[in-house]
Amino acid sequence: MLARYFSWFAYLPIGIILLMAFLGLSHFNHDISWHLLQDTYIINILSFSIQQAILSSLASVVLGYLSARILFYGQCKKFRKIFLSLCLLSFILPSFILISGILSLFGAQGILQPWLPADWQLYGLSGILIAHLWLNFPFALRIFSINFQAIDHTSWQLARQLKFSRWQLFCLLEWPRMRASFFGLLGLIFLLCFNSFAVVLTLGGGPKSSTLEVAIFQALKYDFNLGEALILSWLQFGIASLAFLISLKLGKLVWLSSGEHQAPSIFPVSRFTFFSSHIFYIGLCLIILLPLIALLMQIELSDLVNYAWLSLLEPLVYTITLAGITALLAFLMTSLFLPTFTSTWQNTSYFLACIGLLTPAMVIAVGVYAYLLGKQVSWFTTPSLWIILINTLLTLPYLVNQVRSPYIVYHQHYNHLQRQLKLSFFKKFTIATQWLSPYWFIGTLVTFLFALGDVSVFAIFGQSDSPTLPWLIYRYASTYKLADAAITSWVLLFICILFVFLLEHYLQAKYEVSIYAKNQST
């Protein structure tokens, strides 16, 4: 009981950072001109932010569902596990890697430039939509593919016996299974695109195609207009909170699954459908890989020879160190949270742990920045500390969501036995950690990968003489040093591929453990 009360103190760092952010947003002694909300510039930014987020999320989810349906009914099972890993990689991939690939494809000196229309413009809404589709469409495809495979075998058999049409299959079998994921995906991808920073910063092309997140950064870093930055932050927080609550009400999303289960072939497939579906499958693989292939094609031997490899070492170590400490801190905080997930206030504890999903990164970063500035705290001497603390808050939900449900199941099964054995708190913690080890590892890896690609927090607190790898890629890409950007992107990509391989390995281990437990229970 004492341990459970002690666990609530682990929420103090979250509370302190959020309090600093909101005090910074609320009570900074600059004159905040609320009439800016009626300014045409602000209205245009708000309108464009919502417009591009709606278009990106709808296109990603609808195309993801249709593609998953084609692959499922076409019985495209070859290399399925590798394909789903590729889809996961594209979602976890730091945005600037993909942006460098898109610039290599569609930019002024891009590979596809000779075949594009004369009036083609990458910068603006078209470029933002292309980047968001490449980031989020494979993720939606992975979710729907796993959901198709998870539909019960007996349901397919019954549908075949009753001779369901395609429409009946959709209404009675597919949609009930997909509905929660559909709206959950729609809400999540809307939030990701609405809060998009790296993509819009690089491919926006100017004020006409700017979002709230980028406008906040520009107001703070270039115009030194803190009042405008604070107003935009409140505006973004309000809309993001509303979107998050709506998506939470309409849908539920479980996106980290091995996808190992293979549904048996129920419906006969014609030769034409089989071959056309497999051609479509190959085409999808090529489309997803195209930006990465373009990055490779951008690199020549002379570029590799002339690249400043020694200057890459410091940003590489700095990036991995920041992400590693962030993941470790998230692990320690989540391990302290565990007893609160089975307490009377478990919903409150879950909300507090996941508040990083609710609050945009730029809003927290700007709020803390404004608070420190108002208190005349010299944060310039410790920028890494604030980057780690804020990123821990932002990435914590990914770890919590992996560990919370298994821990509740573990607690229900073994809590009574542990009480009878009168085990100490340390012994209970050791046993629980071993039992939850696959979930711990998966969640910590995901936290590390998301922290690895951080741009928003570094944009506020980072220093130009000590860049992270994503920021170094942005610096090269924004100055049209595409070969240097490509080489740096591939270094970061190699790290991501390595960790995604480990992630899939542990997802497979988790799947085998769940199958074993299911067999034992029956």
Automatic annotation (TrEMBL):
Gene3D superfamilies: MetI-like. It comes from the Bacteria. Keywords: Cell membrane, Membrane, Transmembrane, Transmembrane helix, Transport. SUPFAM superfamilies: MetI-like. Its main location: membrane. GO terms for biological process: transmembrane transport. One of its GO terms (cellular component) is plasma membrane. It is a multi-pass membrane protein. InterPro entries: MetI-like, MetI-like_sf. Pfam families: BPD_transp_1. This is Thiamine transport system permease protein. It comes from Allopseudospirillum japonicum. The lineage of its organism: Bacteria, Pseudomonadati, Pseudomonadota, Gammaproteobacteria, Oceanospirillales.
